[in-house]
TrEMBL record:
Keywords: Cell membrane, Glycoprotein, Leucine-rich repeat, Membrane, Receptor, Repeat, Signal, Transmembrane, Transmembrane helix. Coiled coil: none annotated. Residues 19-56 form the Leucine-rich repeat-containing N-terminal plant-type domain. Belongs to the RLP family. This is Leucine-rich repeat-containing N-terminal plant-type domain-containing protein. It comes from Linum trigynum.
Length: 549
């Protein structure tokens, strides 16, 4: 639902004025730009050709500045910092300003931004501002989009949201991670904003939701997130049920308990319903399966119990379904045939939900309609049994497969090598036997590979030049508790990306494996009980590798 941000690479315009060019150069002068994003901002040229600048085609006035970045984890020290120069006030026609996910090191949001009367879009999400949100932002009467999500390392807060009353045109508001614990007026103001469509108040330390009665709620609200506020109450406030146009509702990670409120069935337009990390109990209500527009249903980590109705197949628009970690929940006869109607399904997670089903039957049902769409299948601790067959190879777009802690037996199917999109595989703590398939080495071209086949009964000889032939991105490999022989040629070069390697109980010896020397990112190694008799020197002398984990 939330808008995306990033650098603007294309430019438009008929030539900017000298005054606006000088304003931009002054603005740049107060910024630190380690990656030279603004290297084109120089000289006496046309600023409409500069990167991240958009001008009006006819007048040449600067109308947009796209200086936002993707999430900071991808960019580290590549962000803009420094301070914001008031020269921005010279950009009289600026309607769009995006500074998201830079790092301004906790400086306050400049109050002069409230004087930029032409702004209709202001994104400051994750930009490293701190302190009190200036009330002057309430002067931006043309503002339609406002994002002020706080960055993790800095504290942004508001003692009152009364300034919002001046933003009658606001359609999008994101105050996630802003401390609103003292802003007791938040609800009275927000629900009466006539144009508000999307509201995100995640991690806002809101401790109480005021009750409302006979209030004319904004009928325009389509998205509401109150995620992770830990409200001091166990019931969902009744006014939520009157937001009839909601398509997105996130009430996750709060203290709501009891039965899932039946009034939610009145929100017939819902596409996303997230009730995860709460304390809802009793059974999953049958009316829930009447919300035919649902694309995402997340009930992860509640106290739900009882049997899941086969009517769940009525949710034919489902893309994402998570009922995991509801220990009393079960499907009476496993995944029902009604799942054959879930043709849009991309992610299915039922960890710790009792299925008591043959895994081959389960895959056959899911494969009828979702073999081409399913990307994530997570079924740990679901009481699955039987053998994995070549039917698993149908799911060619699967990138995550978690079937650990079940009773799956038989050999690993050869067709597993056809699942070239896989990057995370966990088949640990099953009863899988037979030899390690050479087809495993065909899983290539992935960002990174995480494999766990530990605590099974796989045996035989592994020739890494064959079995790991194309796994150049292998990062994590857990295979302890099996009984295999690892025979590597002296010149074998493993994936340099390996960070964790666990070959406990494999026969690797008797010599110390010299191929380990090339693993520059290795952080954890377990070669215990691996038949190595050769000694190696550490800083304190000689010790046996068999005693090292």
């Amino acid at each position: 639902m939330k808008r995306k941000c990033g650098h603007w690479d294309g430019t438009l315009g008929a030539g900017c004025s000298a005054a606006e060019r000088e304003a931009l150069l002054k603005f740049k002068a107060d910024l630190e730009d380690p990656r030279s994003w603004l290297s084109s901002w120089v000289g006496q040229g046309d600023c409409c050709t500069w990167s991240s600048v958009v001008c009006d085609n006819h007048t040449g006035h600067v109308t947009q500045l796209h200086l936002g970045l993707p999430r900071p984890s991808y960019w580290h020290n590549s962000v803009l910092s420094g301070k914001l120069n008031p020269s921005l006030l010279e950009l009289k026609y600026l309607g769009y300003l995006d500074l998201s996910y830079n790092d301004f090191h906790g400086i306050p949001i400049p109050s002069f931004l409230g004087l930029m009367a032409s702004l209709n879009t202001l994104y400051l999400d994750g930009a490293g501002f701190g302190g009190l949100i200036p009330h002057q932002l309430g002067n931006l009467s043309k503002l339609q989009q406002l994002g002020i999500e706080a960055a993790a390392d800095y504290v942004l807060y508001a003692d009152s949201l009364s300034w919002l009353s001046g933003l009658s045109s606001l359609e999008f508001l994101d105050l996630s991670k802003v401390d609103l614990s003292n802003a007791s007026d938040w609800l009275d103001l927000i629900i009466t904003m006539p144009s508000l469509s999307e509201l995100y108040l995640s991690h806002c330390q809101i401790l109480h939701i005021p009750p409302l009665a006979n209030v004319n709620l904004s009928s325009s609200l389509s998205a509401l997130s109150l995620y992770h506020n830990q409200f001091g109450q166990t019931f969902v406030p009744s006014w939520v049920f009157h937001l009839k146009n909601l398509t997105y509702l996130n009430l996750a990670d709060n203290t709501f308990a009891g039965t899932i409120p039946a009034q939610l069935q009145n929100l017939i337009s819902l596409r996303t319903l997230d009730l995860s990390f709460n304390y809802f109990n009793h059974s999953v209500p049958n009316w829930l399966y009447g919300l035919h527009h649902l694309e995402k249903l997340d009930l992860y980590s509640n106290k739900l119990d009882g049997r899941v109705s086969t009517e769940i197949g009525n949710l034919s628009s489902l893309i994402y379904l998570d009922m995991s970690v509801n220990y009393g929940l079960e499907f009476e006869r496993g995944i029902p045939d009604s799942f054959k109607s879930l043709c849009q399904l991309r992610s299915l997670s039922l960890q710790h939900v009792k299925l008591n089903q043959n895994v081959s039957e389960l895959l056959e049902i899911l494969g009828v309609c979702a073999s081409g769409t399913l990307q994530e299948l997570s079924l740990p601790s679901c009481q699955l049994h039987g053998q994995l067959t070549d039917r698993i190879g149908m799911f060619k777009n699967l990138n995550l497969l978690k079937l650990q802690n079940n009773s799956i037996s038989g050999p690993l199917p050869i067709s597993s090598g056809e699942m070239k999109s896989l990057y995370h595989v966990d088949l640990s703590r099953n009863k899988i036997n037979g030899r390690f398939p050479t087809s495993f080495g065909a899983l290539a071209g992935l960002i990174y590979v995480d494999v766990d086949i530990s605590q099974n009964a796989i045996h035989g000889v592994v020739l890494p030049e064959i079995h790991f032939a194309n796994l150049t991105k292998l990062a994590y490999f857990f295979a302890s508790g099996n009984h295999m022989v690892f025979k590597a040629k002296p010149d074998w070069v493993p994936s340099r990306h390996i960070q964790i390697l666990n070959l406990e109980s494999w026969y690797v010896g008797p010599g110390f494996p010299h191929w380990l020397k090339g693993l520059q990112y290795l952080s954890s190694l377990d070669l215990s009980n691996s038949g190595i008799s050769e000694q190696f020197l550490t800083g304190s002398g000689a010790c046996r590798l068999d005693s090292i984990i």
